[in-house]
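Protocol step 4 of 6: structure prediction from sequence.
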Amino acid sequence: MASVLIVNDQSLQRVGLRMLLTAEPDLTVVGDTASGAEAVRMSAALGPDVVLLGGHRPETDAIETIRRIAHPPRLTARVPGPGPGPGVPGRQPPRILVLTSTGHEGHAYAALRAGAGGFLLKDATPHELTAAIRVVAAGDAVITPDLTRALIDTVRHERAPRPGGRAVGLDAFTERERDVLVAVASGWSNAEIAARLSIAPTTVKSHVSHILAKIGARARVQAVAFAYEYGLVRPAA
C-alpha cells in the first residue's frame, strides 16, 4: 500500500485526484492541500510515500516546496499525525512526483535539482498517473521521453550547481560505477545493465545506490542529468 499526499492549488483537481487514487486498492490518500507551506508540514506529520505536486503555483514556490520536502531537517520533533514522523530513525523523505506541462522544461530541471523524483505531463491518462505513483513509491524514477530529451537539452546549455550541491567529479567513481552510470543515463533498466555488464542485478542496484550517494541524489533521473552534464553520454543528433 502506497500513501499519497496531494498538493494542488486547484480545488477541483484535488477532489478529482483524491477520487481517482482512493479508487485504487493499493493506493491511499493521507491528505491534500493547496499550500506549499502546509504541504511541508503535512509531509512531516503524515510521512507519505509519495507527494503528488501539481497545479498552477509560481515556479519559485513549487521549487522551494520540493526542496523542503525532499531535504527536511534531520532533527525535528515529531509532528502529531498517523505517519511515522521525521523523528523516527531511518525514515526517508517522501518521493516527489511533479505534474508538469510542455514548455516548462526549465522548471522541471530546477525541480529535479531540488529533489523531485519524477515528472509526468498534466495530460497523462489516469492509468499513467497511478502507474507513475507506484513506480515512484518503489524508489524508481518516472519521466516522459519527450521531457527527458528537453531536460538533456537544458543540461547541455546550463551550467548550474551539481545535483545535491556537491562538487563531485568523475574521479569519485570507480570504473564499474562509470559503466553503470552511462548505462543508467542511456535508459537501461537494472536487468538490462546486469545482462550487458555480466553482473548480478543486486550488484547493479548496489552500484546505483553508491552513485546516487556520491552525487547527493535520491533518484535515477538526477544521475541521468549528472551523466549528461559531465559528457559521459551525449544526446543523439
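Step 5 (inspection) to follow. The first helix runs from residue 11 to 22.
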